[in-house]
Amino acid sequence: MGSKQTVFTHEQLEEYQDCTFFTRKEIMRLFYRYQDLAPQLVPLDYTSCPAVKVPYQLIGSMPELKDNPFRQRIAQVFSEDGDGHMTLDNFLDMFSVMSEMAPRDLKAYYAFKIYDFNNDDYICAWDLEQTVTRLTRGELSAEEVSLVCEKVLDEADGDHDGRLSLEDFQNMILRAPDFLSTFHIRI
Amino acid sequence: MSPPPKGMEVEGDRSGRRSSRKQAHKAEGLVGKHGAQPGQKERVRGSPRPRSPQRKQTEFRICREELRGQERSPAMRTGESRRKRDGRASFKEQRASPKKDKKVLRKEERWKKLKKPRSLSLASSTSGVESPYSEEELAQILEQVEEKKKLIATMRNKPWPMAKKLTELREAQEFVEKYEGALGKGKGKRLYAYRMLMAKKWVKFKRDFDNFKTQCIPWEMKIKDIESHFGSSVASYFIFLRWMYGVNLVLFGLIFGLVIIPEVLMGVPYGSIPRKTVPRAEEEKAMDFSVLWDFEGYIKYSALFYGYYNNQRTIGWLRYRLPMAYFMVGISVFGYSLMIVIRSMASNTQGSTSEGESDNFTFSFKMFTSWDYLIGNSETADNKYASITTSFKESIVDEQESNKEENIHLTRFLRILANFLIICCLCGSGYLIYFVVKRSQEFSKMQNVSWYERNEVEIVMSLLGMFCPPLFETIAALENYHPRIGLKWQLGRIFALFLGNLYTFLLALMDDVHLKLSNEATIKNITHWTLFNYYNSSGWNESVPRPPLHPADVPRGSCWETAVGIEFMRLTVSDMLVTYITILLGDFLRACFVRFMNYCWCWDLEAGFPSYAEFDISGNVLGLIFNQGMIWMGSFYAPGLVGINVLRLLTSMYFQCWAVMSSNVPHERVFKASRSNNFYMALLLLVLFLSLLPVAYTIMSLPPSFDCGPFSGKNRMYDVLQETIENDFPTFLGKIFAFLANPGLIIPAILLMFLAIYYLNSVSKSLSRANAQLRKKIQALREVEKSHKSVKNRATDRDSGDTPKSSKNSTQLQITKPEPASHSASQSQFLDKKAQDTGTTSSASGTLLPASQHLPGSQPPGVKPDSGKLQSRTHPWRSASGKSAQRPPH
């Protein structure tokens, strides 16, 4: 344990435990994962909170993310200025939200952000198209994609304004049986 | 009454006023909810006093309140700024931005004061700011502290970036640390602090304990690894295996702790009595490996089997009642298993109550929840992409042609055909087993049979278990079910196969047992005669008693219980070996072949014909369940069986994990396991029940062997209960038991249970109906709301700016209700206006104060409203705090 304690101070670890869903051990593991991404970039001493960012190219190549069609969106949503480059705090945030223990509401909030490709706080038809194309690697024809988007809007759009607000999205995701089990990343 | 000298006056005045103040506060606590301003109230109370003290008092109070106001501000400010940041109703900052150094200084000052006892603060009037916390303040701080604590506890649920969370957390912690000691006063304070400390410790301990607990779950990492490669359906098998291992460990503990170890430690040693000795005829070969491998020889006459146990009522210096313990453990193995299976089934169903909504959101769910974020393997990802695409296409096709299903007849025909074929297979395999068992009985009568003939039953059953499932799978391809449903069908069919096998096996075994039982009487006679002749034979010196016959020479019965136990033992071991060999040959060698011969082969082996094996979920799950059924049935006759099973599960955990990771590929259509593995559990329960039946039958209606086992010499095995009741309990208890066993009492009890089941069933039915109706109502409401919204949306575009706000509020997961928040918002705005003009007053308080001191004095006591107003103006903080304290509790 002695070597582990030098990375963070005791207080830092406690605070991280309060702010995330992780135990001390998991936080340390996450840190080492983070550090492994860019060993020459990330210092092994975080007691002074250095402002280090790991570029998206490295984040996206993690085995947990590299096969995810939404990896870029995930990185953008959790990074500070939306460019996908992450600090350790962002990194912890991301995996805390994606952890098993995070409540449904929190997950739904971030899922909405992830699927909202153009960051306009609404999931519009264009966002839906993006989602479908990524999910199927563009193997559906244009008519099929538009049909799917139409159906989704038809099902979930509570106020008929042609786009999904966060409220609509939460309403829908509340009923999804698989959301909690699929919207999580083990690390 | 002439006014006393100034200093004294102030002193006396203050002490007098103190009490009145206190009273006022108390009254306020009662009436304060109506929003009356505290200052005003005091005034009214103070009014009947003579004039001059009144004046002095007012002067003093103003001065004091002024100080107080200043002094109280840091606390307010922190609360304020936090609230503002929280996005709730906020007080606007009244003064200029808080000067940090000053704030800290004041806080320190206050902290020091806090440490003094309350009475001490009476001493000087210049310090004036005695007893910094009135009760309402305390209440308010308490409220804030509680809020902060709640914030700390729910910090991880906030959708904020980490930096913000950290600063918020630090602030909240600081606040709590600073003030939570203040809440207890006087003697209670220390206790309070101590309790807080303990609470903190407790939280820390719980956290550590949770850490520890998660570390204690065995194979968590392995299973996670598998899950991320092969999806949750394969992982569900391993989770089931782990669960099974846990159950078996408990059973193992029961049996070893209460039966085997007492027997080994305290029972008569090996070789002392016939049942614990290898017979003379077998002695030569008893240590040969081939004999031991068949569980004959020394193993047969060991504590692993029923026959080894003696029928002595008590053993050892503990007077341990071994036969009783044996019986009770046998029962409690079943009791515990039943309980644990049913409990886990119940807890699984509780999680899956919210079904039936999915048909409304087919596409939405596919869009937003079909990607499994757990997937961390490109092959699995490829498969997932493919399966999502196909499922989208399927849904589109369904949507487009939901009315016409042209192939329905063909599908139906194919399904019927498939079922027919499978039933044929099942019947055939059942017959085959029956045939083989019959044959093996004949073999057992003959001498020197070959190895194959001795093990024919096991071999045939294992072969059936190996070849039938793939056959079924091939046939099931005709049916074209969704893989999840297909898996269930497959499980059901293989289950039927195994069950048929098991039962034919059991029936044959039963025949065997009956045969042995019928022979038993003659053997008993032979034994008696041998012993009789041995002791009474002529030609021996009558005066010297003959040494007893060596136990190995005593002729003995066949001991059918041990024979049954051995049968189960053999079956378990051969099953295990066949499983491992199948994995080695079918998966590992195949994978090696495909991998390495691919370099020099004429077609692509990896993509083409043999390719790699998929993990066979259904076969493995059923193998596990079936095996467990064997354990349950056999453990009564072979206590050591559970130990072997624990070893088997342990090795198969590691072995299969390795095999899956090294030589299997993910399924072609990756599908999620149904959320609860209740189907597995239901099968397990069925097997448990079915394996309970034969054991119960043998216990209740077959006589135990006369010369082996803990129940020898008794008419039935359960007689041991009666014996214990008669000999070890007082007589009236025996009478009570006899009374309870009366059919006149049992039949009504059973009837009552039936009634209870009927009643509960009808209640649950009506509840589920009510549930369905409620769901319908919600649906209808949603529809109405939808249409309402769409109308409203067009009508009031202006409101749309407000809705996202509220929705955002709700996403921040805060516990505030919107109503009180808005209430206090309007209040605070109102206060704000007031505060701004007080701000000017108090900023120049040093110069302005004398003037304002004169003001109330010059006024007649009748003009109270004015002065009240003034007071409220001078002390905006007080009123603000009063208001916020008076907020309706929520």
Automatic annotation (TrEMBL), chain A:
GO biological process terms held by the UniProt record: calcium ion homeostasis; integrin-mediated signaling pathway
Start and end residues of each EF-hand domain: 144-179
Transmembrane segments: none
UniProt keyword terms in alphabetical order: Calcium, Integrin, Magnesium, Metal-binding, Repeat
Major subcellular site: membrane
Compartmental location: Cell membrane, Sarcolemma
The keyword Magnesium appears for this protein: yes
InterPro entries in UniProt: CIBP, EF-hand-dom_pair, EF_Hand_1_Ca_BS, EF_hand_dom
Listed GO CC annotations: sarcolemma
Highest rank taxon of the organism: Eukaryota
GO MF: calcium ion binding; magnesium ion binding
Protein name in UniProt: Calcium and integrin-binding family member 3
The organism of origin for this protein: Heterocephalus glaber
Gene name in the database record: CIB3
TrEMBL record, chain B:
Biased composition annotated in UniProt, kind: Basic and acidic residues: 56-71, 79-99, 783-802
Compositionally biased region (Low complexity): 838-852
Regions of compositional bias (Polar residues) in chain numbering: 803-815
UniProt entry keywords in alphabetical sequence: Membrane, Transmembrane, Transmembrane helix
Subcellular location: Membrane
Major place of residence: membrane
Domain spans labelled TMC: 559-674
GO biological process: detection of mechanical stimulus involved in sensory perception of sound; vestibular reflex
GO cellular component: plasma membrane
Membrane topology note: Multi-pass membrane protein
GO molecular function: mechanosensitive monoatomic ion channel activity; voltage-gated calcium channel activity
Segments passing through the bilayer: 243-266, 325-346, 416-437, 490-509, 636-658, 679-700, 736-760
Region (Disordered): 1-129, 783-890
Family according to the record: Belongs to the TMC family.
PANTHER family per the UniProt record, alphabetical: TRANSMEMBRANE CHANNEL-LIKE PROTEIN 2 (PTHR23302:SF17), TRANSMEMBRANE CHANNEL-RELATED (PTHR23302)
Annotated protein name in UniProt: Transmembrane channel-like protein
Organism of derivation: Heterocephalus glaber
Protein encoded by which gene: Tmc2
